Amino acid sequence: MATVQGVLGPIESEDLGFTLMHEHIMIANWSMRQAFGDWVDTEKVIAFASDELVKAKEAGVKTVCDLTPINIGRDIHVIHETAARAEMNVIASTGFYYHEEPWIEAWPAEKLVEWLIRDVTDGIQGTSIKAGLIKCATHQAGVTEFNAKLLRASAQLQRATGLPISTHTDVACESGLGQQDVFEEEGVDLSRVVIGHCGDSEDIAYLTKILERGSYIGMDRFGLDMVLPTEKRVGVIAELCRNGWADQMVLSHDACCHIDFFPDFGPDLAAVMAPNWNFRHVPCDVIPALRKNGVTEEQIRALSVDNPRRIFEKQGSY
How many C-beta neighbours within 10 Å does residue 140 have? Predict the structure, then answer.
């Protein structure tokens, strides 16, 4: 058993329960928020997001990991208030997204770690709320020199704190393998890493290569059917379970209650774009579909409860 840092206080790992490993409460650019006070209505976001968490809790979810990195708008006050209203376990993260921002260009990984570690040891944004995960990312360009620096910063932070790493990838360029290369070079135990968005792929060979190196894979974009329909995502998981990999997969949606990547984003637009992109699609729809595809109850528990718990327990308490 280990103690995990949640936004409402420490959580014993045995109390994590059904855990969604990759979600977002709010993504909202900090620069635009500072420039325009009405860029985002945080009270409206909190009201909607807390209602979504309550619905997820009623569907059996007990813990949600918010993987919003610093530079796309992580706001610990919004995350905390949402979790408090919903009375839901929420785990926040630290780290950077893949964007090549000018201010990061000249910073070596070691100097970035000096700042990031404060999110883990002291607290986020002047609060006592500590990060429980490390987030990092690569996208369509794969592991560029710039991205590799950010991956190295995450790796060094992982080794200093013991926190697990969870990533954003683009499966088209198989960047999960490149991420593993960087982490391995930095001395990270690859079993401390969740390679994210692997559920976007039907390439069993690619996914197996990641698994064989010891990492978990995030089957974590359920509801984004425009990328890959749910039935195909379920089929990939079922096949990997038959191949003996049930103990190295985790589930989620990568859902956002508010995301400013799209103009006028809100519940109505989300309902049109991706009606199942919410925190309850996995427990309500995906789990029954997995059963129909031959995934056993033991394997389902591994995917939803045991694997997330093991990911956090290996670190010990911090």
Answer: 9
Strands 19-27 and 256-259: parallel
Q: Where are the domains of the chain?
A: 3-313
Distance, in Å, from the CA atom of 47 to the CA atom of 152, rounded to the nearest integer, reads 37
At residue 271, the 3 state secondary structure works out as: helix
156-208: per-residue pLDDT in tens? 999 999 999 999 999 999 999 999 999 999 999 999 999 999 999 999 999 99
Q: What is the pLDDT of residue 314?
A: 80
| 123: nearest Cα among 310, 318, 301 | 318
Rg (CA), the chain: 18
For the domain made up of 3-313, give the CATH fold. Answer: TIM Barrel (3.20.20)
- The two structure tokens encoding residue 128: 């006592």
C-beta of residue 286 within 8 angstroms of C-beta of residue 220: no
- Token couple for 58: 């009623």
